[in-house]
């Protein structure tokens, strides 16, 4: 059996809205294996979704629905209290919308990943995680659900969906393994991010902001596309992973190993 490390490298995309533009999606795509495309609740509009999906299909990338709270003004980063049944409907609506664009472009939806506050809350709250997983299963139970860790895995599995943990080499972690969220994405040193990415993929470790080594259980690494130097970062990360002998593959290829 091969011991070569295998990892997915993803990025959140399609987060422009109308005349407002965020990130250089086209320049990021050649270095990725998967993308998470905004579905209109925190960012994205029909034209942006179509263009982003078409680009992802052209590059052969795994395409995920990047679902969120209905929070355009807050970019999906504000916590909301929503009944589980309503949340399930919100998620089903967004997943279905993106699936339509993906099918129209000749592709296939590959996964679901919550955004912002919904991501953080669902990674800690089993009821929320189950609502998202139930919506995912209603569309296609073979679609894996990305979350930060396995804390709510039982709730996700109970809905008939596979949970895939994710890691962030361009964000800090506190000593308890929780993300240190930046108010706006800072320009990290590309070499630093690359070193962290390789260690996450090969050793399953990362140094916290307090200097403590913590365990990272990840099948996918997320590189943010909204940093001032995102393209330099993802290019450097990809080169470092290749040099370390890590296979970069779409998330769907890793599901049997999860």
Automatic annotation (TrEMBL):
Domain of life: Bacteria
Database matches in Pfam families: LamB_YcsF
InterPro entries given in the database record: Glyco_hydro/deAcase_b/a-brl (IPR011330), LamB/YcsF/PxpA-like (IPR005501)
CDD domains: LamB_YcsF_like (cd10787)
Gene3D superfamilies: Glycoside hydrolase/deacetylase
NCBIfam families in the record: PRK05406.1-3, PRK05406.1-5
Name of the protein in its database record: LamB/YcsF family protein
Lineage: Bacteria, Bacillati, Actinomycetota, Actinomycetes, Kitasatosporales
